[in-house]
Write a structure and sequence with these properties.
The protein is an alpha+beta fold. The protein contains nine helices and seven strands, in the order ααααββαββαβββααα. The chain has two domains: 36 residues; 204 residues, no CATH class.
Length: 271
């Protein structure tokens, strides 16, 4: 016998509740959108933090210590590739052949360059010498860690730039001529091209000086910035010695910046 409602009619199943179902669906939608939005916001915040510019003061302070807490292979890589860095956009490769013991700056420069850099002070001097893939060019790259503060480095950079100190042949850096290497005959008279960079975001002066490995002398060395200009036809320009000095100085400067936790872009004028 089937149960029934009043009057013996069959009892209907409970009525569905479309309003309740719609509310539940709407709640799920809101929750889902909220979760997605929260995740996206979290991603944006993370990306913004990851791409934030490091604190300049902290980077500058760390830059003074990178010389003793960063591996030499990081600051002066064993091999440096310069894609499109040579004359006419040719690729260049440089191999490190010698690293000088870290030292002070006494006797490390010719007198006039020593005087020009003296106001910045000297904590340490690091140097390495490279040879190009043809073993015909040798390049010494140096990094002087200074005692100057940010204002002092900016003032020194301005002085070098406005007075063209980086283009004077009596302020050329000295090579590091390591024995039993292709650079053993790389002396004062063999200097062909050079550059001096006073960094302003870390307390470091970077320089590079290049010459031929066969010991030939140069009566008229040329600054790297002039030797790398389009159309330059001097021996330092056509041989790539200007590019060697400029591009290795750029690379080592970037490596010191990265070790200090700062951006890699150049912030100072070329000297």
């Amino acid at each position: 016998m089937h149960g029934g409602g009043p009057g013996g009619l069959p009892r209907r199943p409970p009525a569905s509740r479309p309003g309740a179902r719609a509310l539940a669906a709407a709640a799920c939608l809101v929750l889902g959108v909220g979760l997605i939005g929260g995740a996206a916001a979290g991603s944006w915040l993370t990306d913004e933090a990851a791409g934030a510019t490091p604190d300049a003061a902290a980077t500058f302070a760390k830059g003074r210590d990178v010389w003793h807490n960063t591996p030499v292979d990081t600051l002066f890589p064993r091999t440096v590739h310069g894609f499109g860095a040579g004359p006419g956009g040719a690729d260049r490769t440089w191999s490190r052949i010698a690293v000088a013991p870290d030292s002070g700056c006494t006797g490390a420069y010719d007198p006039k360059l020593a005087d020009a850099l003296a106001r910045a002070g000297c904590v340490r001097l690091l140097r390495a010498t490279y040879v190009d893939a043809t073993r015909s060019s040798v390049i010494t790259v140096g990094a002087q860690i200074t005692k100057a503060d940010q204002a002092g480095m900016t003032a020194l950079n301005t002085r070098f730039s406005t007075r063209s100190l980086g283009t004077r042949t009596d302020l050329m850096p000295l090579p590091y001529a390591a024995r039993d290497t292709p650079a053993e005959d790389f002396g004062r008279a063999q200097r062909a091209s050079w550059t001096v960079r006073v960094l302003t975001d870390i307390p470091v002066v970077v320089y590079a000086v290049s010459g031929f490995a066969d010991g030939r002398t140069f009566a008229a060395p040329q600054p790297a910035e002039a030797a790398t200009k389009p159309g330059a036809t001097t021996a330092p320009a056509e041989s790539g010695l200007g590019h060697d000095a400029k591009d290795l100085a750029d690379r080592i400067g970037k490596d010191f910046r990265t070790a200090a936790g700062g951006p890699r872009q150049t912030t100072e004028a070329s000297s």
